[in-house]
Design goal:
The chain is an alpha+beta fold. The protein has a single domain, classed as Gcn5-related N-acetyltransferase (GNAT) (Aminopeptidase, 3-Layer(aba) Sandwich), CATH 3.40.630. Strands 1-2-3-4-6-5 form a 6-stranded mixed beta sheet. The radius of gyration is 14 Å and the shape is globular. The termini are far apart.
């Protein structure tokens, strides 16, 4: 969770940054973040980037990542045409591809997915 929060701290309260968390008994079980696509040539396509979906190790395999991803999709539909992501591992790439993302050979991102019209 600290990694996700650190990534968002760099945004300094800018517009176009969203963060969601699943909390139980004042404890963060999982968190996810999205921001407007920062890569200039991709931002022209009305894209948002998934900054991360993180689930605490003690709470994995309970569908929390799926719930957060569904929330991200609901948020993106109607606001953006594409979602982008930069998979940091084979597990992350597998998660993205399972959810309809296509690998992309681009220096800024590794995957993208169409989400709706804007």
């Amino acid at each position: 969770m600290a990694k996700l929060l650190a990534e968002f701290a760099d945004e300094g309260g800018q517009e176009g940054v969203w963060l969601w968390a699943l909390v139980r008994a004042k404890r963060v079980l999982a968190a996810a973040g999205v921001r407007r696509e920062p890569c200039r040539d991709l931002s022209l396509f009305h894209a948002a980037r998934i900054v991360g979906i993180y689930v605490h190790p003690d709470h994995r395999e309970r569908g929390y990542g799926e719930r957060l991803f569904a929330r991200i999709l609901r948020h993106a539909q109607g606001r953006f045409r594409r979602l982008t992501a930069r998979a940091g591992s084979e597990t992350a790439a597998g998660f993205l591809e399972h959810h309809g993302f296509v690998p992309l050979d681009h220096p800024c991102v590794s995957h993208f997915r169409l989400v709706g019209k804007r």
